């Protein structure tokens, strides 16, 4: 491993010190041994060592060499002078115990001093005074030379001062103190990377993963950084060889950059030069030449920078700005190092949002294309997320109004960014003031905007609902619910496929929002359930499924909504879906029925009327889906409160099915509970089922179910 000590003499001293510690430990064990022979041998060996040490102490003092004060102490402290050859074993042990206590006291005192110096070093580090931090950490090591944190902290300070060899040395000493020190391997990997020791850097990062597999993401990032740095170096070495060999592109790029950097020329001059440059840098070698010739410094030209940052632009400035964006696209396509350098330039990161909202289609198209180079890969997204993107959701959503490819490009970028937690956090700040008003406006005007893009935009907002804070804000907005309902109103069967896609998307958004529970949802529960009930007749099965899902989530918020949908025939509809057998639709339908039968006697009556002998519910009780089984058992238990319901089940397999579920090992306790309640109500309402229960030896299960019956 890369943690080998560079000073062989110091390493030897350190190992000799460790052996001496082991020898002393063995002697102490021998002195404490109950075996008198072992004890006598240990006493003799101790006396011998004391004589040898006493004779050599003066010589050692004279010949001792000076070593780095901050290294671990490699000398063995002499035994107390009170220990001599004439002591008995008991006296010797007492002297050793006294010496051990003194050493422990000194160590505690030194540890306190070292900790205080470490904190002073940390404070200096935070303030950017790395030289002072190194001084404080070194003083701490003089007090306590085996304190790992002081070595790693000092190594971090050395890294800040680009003293990479010293940082590596400190990391090696930290690993001598703690062989599993992750920070030491991390910092040593950084130092090796700075020295372009790519193999050693990877070894350090791989060692981190061996020590702690939970650090896989961090290690992956570090290895990726090393890979990119090595790739950059190799590309630049190859470009240098080609330039020396007379590569035409190299000389062309250098000449064009010199011309563009010259001041006092007209806009058309710079526009033409940048267009030519964009053509030359399109290859990998051209991109490297562009970077090594400091091509991104083109913004130092006042005319070029003025066209990029202007609030309003003349046609010539628009053309210059578009040319600059084309150049950046050519220089950054597939080139991660160039992408990083571009966003590191002053004005660029902040100016992207301004370019997107410029209102000039050509500039917007090229800006979207440039941003897409970043958003479609993980490292590029990280570079983007270092910028302030708080306005981006609002700006990109506004492209839904565009009728050309800009809308799709904007939605692609949003989809790429939406999974990033940092982007979600930045969106939260602008959601209520910027995003919601725009979004509700787009929903209301759904017939006049790019409907395919609008559907994708709603999908993006649906994804945002994974963030609890954002979801709560959206679910509280009355304007949002009103706009969703208005969009649903415009969806007859004959509407365009694009509009139907919008309806499908808004239903998905509503399902996500209904994970919340608040007064706004209660207020809108009746109109929401009414719109969804109407959509159950839609020809698009996907819309029907999602409308059923919305019903299953909104009905618990309002008994009035339950009564309205029951009057509208929801029970018969749900039974129809359950007979058709689609898994997702069935899970929503049986949940909807369970909610309706819980609070509506009419729903119980209709279920008994339309499901003869409960054939649909009995089939669901035999399902492999615990959620479906639990809801089916609940529906059955509610319907058994109706006169004649239990008698209708005579001769069926209901007892066997309920027994199997009540006494089973389902992970959801609601399965056993609801099945047991249904079984108890069945036997209470129709005692003739008890005969079947006895035949199946189910009385014990029925008895255990009484605890559930009492609670109901």
UniProtKB/TrEMBL annotation:
Region (Disordered): 44-68
Cellular component terms per the entry's GO annotation: centrosome; cytoplasm
Keywords: Repeat, TPR repeat
Superkingdom of origin organism: Eukaryota
Annotated GO biological process: axonemal dynein complex assembly; sperm axoneme assembly
Ranges of Basic and acidic residues composition bias in the record: 44-57
SUPFAM superfamilies, alphabetized: ARM repeat, TPR-like
Residue windows of the TPR repeats: 182-215
InterPro entries associated with the record: ARM-like, ARM-type_fold, TPR-like_helical_dom_sf, TPR_2, TPR_rpt, TTC12
A Pfam family per the record: TPR_2
Protein name: TTC12 protein
Organism of this sequence: Helopsaltes ochotensis (Middendorff's grasshopper-warbler)
């Amino acid at each position: 491993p890369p943690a080998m000590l560079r000073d062989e003499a110091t390493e030897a001293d350190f190992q000799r010190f460790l052996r001496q510690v082991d020898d002393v430990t063995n002697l102490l064990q021998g002195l404490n041994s109950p075996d008198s022979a072992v004890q006598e041998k240990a006493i003799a060996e101790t006396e011998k060592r004391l004589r040898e040490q006493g004779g050599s102490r003066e010589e050692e003092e004279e010949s001792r060499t000076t070593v780095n004060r901050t290294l671990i102490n490699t000398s063995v402290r002499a035994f107390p002078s009170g220990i001599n050859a004439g002591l008995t074993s008991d006296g010797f042990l007492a002297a050793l115990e006294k010496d051990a206590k003194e050493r422990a006291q000194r160590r505690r005192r030194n540890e306190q001093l070292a900790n205080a110096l470490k904190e002073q070093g940390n404070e200096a580090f935070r303030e950017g005074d790395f030289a002072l931090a190194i001084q404080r950490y070194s003083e701490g090591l003089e007090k306590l030379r085996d304190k790992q944190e002081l070595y790693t902290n000092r190594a971090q300070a050395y890294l800040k001062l680009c003293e990479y060899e010293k940082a590596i040395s400190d990391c090696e000493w930290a690993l001598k103190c703690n062989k599993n020190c992750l920070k030491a391997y991390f910092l040593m990997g950084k130092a090796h990377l700075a020295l372009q020791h790519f193999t050693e850097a990877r070894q350090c990062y791989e060692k981190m993963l061996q020590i702690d597999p939970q650090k896989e993401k961090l290690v992956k990032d570090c290895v990726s950084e090393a890979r990119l740095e090595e790739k950059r170096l190799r590309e630049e070495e190859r470009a240098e060889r080609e330039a020396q060999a007379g590569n035409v592109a190299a000389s062309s790029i250098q000449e064009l950059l010199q011309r563009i950097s010259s001041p006092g020329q007209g806009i058309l001059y710079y526009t033409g030069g940048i267009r030519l440059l964009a053509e030359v840098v399109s290859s990998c070698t051209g991109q490297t030449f562009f970077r090594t010739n400091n091509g991104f410094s083109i913004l130092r030209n006042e005319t070029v920078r003025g066209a990029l940052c202007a609030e309003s632009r003349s046609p010539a400035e628009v053309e210059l700005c578009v040319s600059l964006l084309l150049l950046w696209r050519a220089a950054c396509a597939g080139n991660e190092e160039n992408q990083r350098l571009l966003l590191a330039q002053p004005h660029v990161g902040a100016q992207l949002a301004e370019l997107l909202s410029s209102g000039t289609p050509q500039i917007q198209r090229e800006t979207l294309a440039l941003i897409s180079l970043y958003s479609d890969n993980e490292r590029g997204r990280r570079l983007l997320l270092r910028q302030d993107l708080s306005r981006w959701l609002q700006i990109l959503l506004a492209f839904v109004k565009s009728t050309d490819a800009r809308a799709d490009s904007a939605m692609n970028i949003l989809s790429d960014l939406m999974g990033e937690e940092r982007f979600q956090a930045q969106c939260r700040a602008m959601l209520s003031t910027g995003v919601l008003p725009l979004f509700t406006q787009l929903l209301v005007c759904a017939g006049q905007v790019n409907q395919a893009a609008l559907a994708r935009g709603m999908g993006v907002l649906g994804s945002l609902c994974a963030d609890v804070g954002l979801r709560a804000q959206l679910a509280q907005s009355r304007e949002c619910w009103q706009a969703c309902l208005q969009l649903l109103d415009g969806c007859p069967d004959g509407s365009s496929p694009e509009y139907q896609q919008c309806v499908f998307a808004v239903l998905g958004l509503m399902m996500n929002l209904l994970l919340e529970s608040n007064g706004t949802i209660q207020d809108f529960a009746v109109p929401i359930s009414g719109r969804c009930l109407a959509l159950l007749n839609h020809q698009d099965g996907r819309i029907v499924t999602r409308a059923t899902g919305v019903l299953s989530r909104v009905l618990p918020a309002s008994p009035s909504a339950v009564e309205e949908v029951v009057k509208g025939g929801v029970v018969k509809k749900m039974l129809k879906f359950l007979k058709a057998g689609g898994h997702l639709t069935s899970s929503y339908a049986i949940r909807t029925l369970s909610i309706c039968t819980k609070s509506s006697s009419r729903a119980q009556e209709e279920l008994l009327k339309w499901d003869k002998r409960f054939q649909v519910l009995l089939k669901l009780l035999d399902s492999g889906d615990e959620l479906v089984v639990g809801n089916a058992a609940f529906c059955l238990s509610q319907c058994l409160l109706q006169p004649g319901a239990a008698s209708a089940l005579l001769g069926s397999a209901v007892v066997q099915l309920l027994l199997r579920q009540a006494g089973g090992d389902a992970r959801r306790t609601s399965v056993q509970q609801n099945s047991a309640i249904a079984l108890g109500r069945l036997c209470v309402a129709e005692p003739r089922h008890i005969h079947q229960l006895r035949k199946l030896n189910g009385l014990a299960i029925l008895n255990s179910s009484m605890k559930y019956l009492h609670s109901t």
